[in-house]
Amino acid sequence: MSNPKFPMIDYDFDKAHIWHPYTSMTKALPTYGVIGASGCELELDTGQRVIDGTSSWWACVHGYGHPYILDKMEHQLRQLSHVMFGGITHQPAIELSKRLIDMTCPRLSKVFLADSGSIAVEVALKMALQYWQGKQQPAKQKILTVKQGYHGDTFAAMSVCDPDGGMHTMFGQAVTPQLFVPSPQTPFGEPLRTEDIIALQQALAEHHEQIAAVIIEPILQGAGGMRFYSADYLTELRRLCDQYDVLLIVDEIATGFGRTGKLFAYEHANIEPDLICVGKALTGGYISLAATLCSDEVAQGISDSPSGVFMHGPTFMGNPLACAAACASLDLIAKNQWPTQVAAIEYQLQQELQAAAQYASVKAVRVLGAIGVLEMHATVNTSALQQQFIDLGVWIRPFANYIYIMPPFTISSTQLTKLTTAMKTVAQSLQATDDTPKFISHG
Questions:
Q1: What is the pLDDT of residues 383-396, one digit of tens each?
Q2: What pTM was computed for the model?
Q3: Taking the CB of residue 89, how many other CB atoms lie within 10 A of it?
Q4: Is 118 annotated as a binding-site member?
Q5: Residues designated catalytic
Q6: Ligand-binding site membership of 117 (annotated)
Q7: DSSP track, 63-102
Q8: What is the rounded distance in angstroms from the CA atom of residue 115 to the CA atom of residue 331?
Q9: Burial of 438 from C-beta contacts in 10 A (0-12 / 13-18 / 19+)
Q10: Is 126 annotated as a binding residue?
Q11: Closest among 41, 38, 59, 63 to 50, alpha carbons compared
């Protein structure tokens, strides 16, 4: 119930008329009114403050209300909030692109500024297809990827999400069929198992003349199961893409800017992709923006294609306000405090979540960088658990059979303990289903 001292939220209108992510309009999950946020806390309309364990879907790595980002955005807002990018340029876009080129690998030298993560993936896939047209190999029209992946909700992005257990199976043949191989099973930190690579080798050997690119989430499969896999898989994937003349796209939208303990997750394997998609933490979560970077070679192939230009151009491409927010966020990243912050979070997660491995309801505990995961044996009741977490003073959004946190890098040890304690409390309250739990740490 709302506190009269705080702004009223019209829950009835919200429930009757407004879609929320992955919800029904007739059987909607409960919503909680937020009226403010600062640091690592959300302020509810009841007056309660809850610690955000999700960084607003993994984006707000610097926390809320950061004065430096707000100052840069306010200055840009008063100067130039938006202008079309067709035939016009501006310094925020130039500065952001310079920084992205400098902080990623040498191979990536061209930047496309997109609206969102899904669009960055769409752009990368279109770039791959158009590149091969410019290389006089128009038969290369397929994308290869691994099962249990997730790359977004737009149509091309849906086509490379898990085809069986993913969120988009109901769209059937409206989604372009792509090529899939089993997801890597070798845990992070372990040498690659031979059986992990056999299907990938076979698929590339048999279909490379039709494959334009491989796309993969490096190290972490997020929505597909919060799984961490061996960096050796990426090393072998890069080698095979070179061998069979196929482009490699890494989707760093969830993992980029320090989340796994490296600035970008592909650095765990010491490889260079041909294209990379970034988003979420790019602006620190303050406004929507994403980017796709590609190599000179890819850009040249696109320029040599029949159209002579890359065929994509969103209305809000290169939005100055978003670019200014991203530059401010990357300024904070450049201070290089995040490695220490993420290492401290990882250590604390290891220490505090390990006990949950003894709970019969927990199948596995996984930790890497600023990511902590409890994999449960059974699918959880998101609505019921959400209320339990609110009652415990935290915002944790479970899904399927995963209770996980990806907190802001600025979180205090006290706040983090409150999150991990809530995770263990809720997990322990669930029905026992097994007595052979497993703790997996990657620190």
A1: 999 999 999 999 99
A2: 0.95
A3: 11
A4: yes
A5: 22, 150, 251, 280
A6: yes
A7: -BS-HHHHHHHHHHHHH-S----TT---HHHHHHHHHHHH
A8: 21
A9: exposed
A10: no
A11: 41
